[in-house]
Predict the 3D structure of the following.
Amino acid sequence: MSQANRYEQHVIIVGGGAGGLELATRLGRRYARKGLRVTLVDRETTHVWKPLLHEVATGRLDPGIDEVNYRAQARLAGFQFQIGSLEGVDRAARTIRLAPVVSSDGEVLLPERTLAYDYLVIAVGSRTNDFGTPGVAEHCCFLDDRRQADNFHHQLLDACLKMSQRTDGSPLRVAIVGGGATGVELSAELYNAAQQLVSYGFSNVDPQHMAVTLIEAGPNILGALPTRIVNAARTELKKLGVDVREQTQIVEAREGALITRTGEEIAADMMVWAAGVKAPELMTRLDGLETNARNQLVVGPDLRTSRDEHIFAIGDCAQCERRDEEGGFVPPRAQAAHQMASHLYRHFDSILSGEDIPAYVYKDYGSLVSLSKYSTVGNLMGNLTRGSIMLEGHLARLVYVSLYRMHQVALYGYIKTALVTLVSRINRVIRPRLKLH
């Protein structure tokens, strides 16, 4: 293929999460002037970094300030944006079908559309897996996206307002199922939210009146992390007052209660399900593309789907084998999505020329868990060192924040990220410390 022709192609990226948005931004900046069309498709109009959704849920992070508008980002980076939900793929025709965009009152704003592609990158992320547990969908909150985080935040404010009128001293009971990073971080953030709400006039909502139960079916919370880090996190949570229940499996959710396998009833005013992840069900209906039991698209070493060399999958929706001493599959983490996006970006010239590209190799840079303002724990460098380096306290918090700044650098560049960081610090002084609406 000639130098000119290879750039006269259309790349569609479905999903504006950590991997998809970064890839669209970098490809747009690099290839827009050369003639390559890059289109990002997402059902929302804005992006919030998923690892921070628990902060949106408690109000610590105001998404109105920290979100990225897809259309604005597209204009700055040179790609195009189409709002819509992926509904189907025609591999023979190389087209995707987008569902109609409907307003809140049912009016069709945009009809069903068909977009043609030369290369398709699917980066739709993952959803919480309720494992078919009865009552979970009806009675539990989820934190998969901005809308769900906002919904939890409004429920939390309403619950605290009701609680401020209580005279019997009973606490606000919150039960969180899933002892992974989301569950652990949300547990700590709830105590910080309670402390902040008291200072804004919510009586009877101090940490002493907050009863958080963290429920994990496995033997330990943060099961993928080293024992010493798990112990440190568990100790900090118990200091805050979190009732950490490990080896406790939930078999049913009811109005105001969770039921364990042993028949115990855990009463709660609010219930959050944050246990397990799976790719959207739609992945199993994409014109015969191969998927696994968690609906992930099976990809080869070069991140191409197993049955179509023109379709790639990255991030949580991709089942990709690890090519290191750990074995198994690449974990569904933001750093993996970032790495996959970077891998495709580095080798996109070869992809456009129809050439093979090197295998993607996952690099574990460790894990960090933020316990709100109280502490941060984690391990740094992971399998890049002999063992791992444990971090805790202010240094760990600094590294944790730097991960988000690196994501912003990928989107904005260093200068704009520095300005955004400066504005963020100014907002700490002039704005409430908690989103109150």
